[in-house]
Design goal:
CATH architecture: Beta Barrel
Main location: membrane
Distance between the termini: 66 Å
Number of helices: 3
Oligomer: single chain
Shape: globular
CATH superfamily: Calycin beta-barrel core domain
CATH class: Mainly Beta
Number of domains: 1
Largest sheet: 8 strands, antiparallel, barrel
Structural class: alpha+beta
Strand order of the largest sheet: 1-2-3-4-5-6-7-8
Function: Involved in the storage or transport of lipids necessary for membrane maintenance under stressful conditions. Displays a binding preference for lysophospholipids.
Subunit structure: Homodimer.
Keywords: Cell outer membrane, Lipid-binding, Lipoprotein, Membrane, Palmitate, Signal
CATH topology: Lipocalin
Subcellular location: Cell outer membrane; Membrane
Strand content: 35-45%
Amino acid sequence: MKSRYIAPVLVGAGIALALYSCGSTIPKKAVAITNFDKTKYLGKWYEIARLDFKYEKGLNNVTAEYSLNDNGTIKVDNKGYDFKKNKWEQSIGKAKFVKADNIGMLKVSFFGPFYAGYNVIAVEDNYKYALVVGESLKYMWILSRETTIPENIKADFLIKAREIGFNISDLVWVKQDKIN
């Protein structure tokens, strides 16, 4: 009798997994930028601050480098230095636009078909500084083309993040030290 429920439960779980892996969500009060210029966004970014999570825990000197793949997706090359293990960690993935390529709403994957939200919600006019959020209030990054960020831009990003609902007191301020 119970075996007749297995197929519907598995189908429902599959649908839920497929919807979850779309990674096309954004926190309720956040808005991805429009007039996004993917060409200007490509290149190397330094992580200035983040809400910590298991894949970046303990890493400093974190960078993200974005380049175009032949198929139109964006190659994501994240690197960070683990001082406790005395070694570099690297993760390479791909990003796709969720809507149009002029809206800063993307989904990124480092693990096969599983995607997570990557939403650019603020970027300075010359694409030198960016505020990026994930699909929930658990994920946020402040990025810069340099290893530092001006205080006024940092303050603006922190105000915007707090207004959306992020707990900015939980931010990890990434060290960008020279490593021999």
